[in-house]
Predict the structure.
Amino acid sequence: MEVGRLIGAGLLAEDGLAKSEGGRRSSLLRIPRAAGLIAAVDLGATSTDVALSTLGGELLLHRGEPGDVKDGPDKVLGRVRELLSELLVEEGADAREVLAIGVGAPGPVEHASGVLRSPPIMPGWDGFPISGAFAGEYDAPVFVDNDVNVMALGEHRDGVGKGEENVLFIKIGTGIGGGIIADGHLQRGSQGCAGDIGHICVDPDGPVCSCGNRGCLEAMAAAPAIAAKAKRYAEEGLSPVLRGVFDERGALTARNVGEAASLGDYHALQIIRESGRLVGQVLAILVSTLNPSLIVVGGGVANIGNSLLAEIRTAVYRRSLPLATRDLPIVLSALDQEAGVTGASVLAVEGVLQRS
Ligand SMILES: [Zn+2]
């Protein structure tokens, strides 16, 4: 029996008995740690997360720290290798046990080559062979994808999207992006750009975006846009709360705006509502195109206050056909900081399985 051979080879382990459905109870199976390890890397614009997981996708160790992707590939990936080495030591393993490496990166990744192409917020990474950075230490294939695609995989594997066939994941952070799960599978499109919704135009006369165009969703609703509006309101003296924070710290972040809104600051609340409205406006187009059964909102800005999610819901429900939204929950990510590394490990496992 195949399962028996896999258990004998240490690639599967029995993990108790399943609930009886009449007849003999079957054994639950899991892939043991001894079968090998997966290294998962989640590069954010301002954070670096690495993790080790089993082949079954169970996270064993996870470490995250602030990082700046603008520091370029040598420095950022050098630090990733250091962190991975530390985790391997902690796990009592060595690099030879790593069977595959999954990497999420905050830019457009050409799926066939796993290489970033003209990433707007990643100077120095255009065309950089990320997989080569691991070649000296690891004898393992490296799979690279856009960070939002990777988070969508994570939410689908272990988060609120588990068991759902049609999920739209949207990340609102330094940038804005989407990941599309349709019929249970991540949709990448022909080059890998499917779901890259941050550069959809919402105002042709809007501010210039990092991509060079005007009025992209990202340029008007992501964290830097929220911070820039807050700074303007503070300087103009419209918001006493934001003014106070600005005078004290010399800068404002999206999180400060969320805090000011929770104190009842009218202008902070307006900034958040405007972001939610714009995001919802674009999501409504996707709802009409894809008819998902669930929308998951993640990323650093997602948690700045209930008013953001409320405004997104209002805009989506108002602008979509009733049939499409009759049973369409719009919820916050439950995995939060773990979505990226969970998804990167799924990416690596799926990559290995597709090759073999
Ligand atoms: Zn843009």
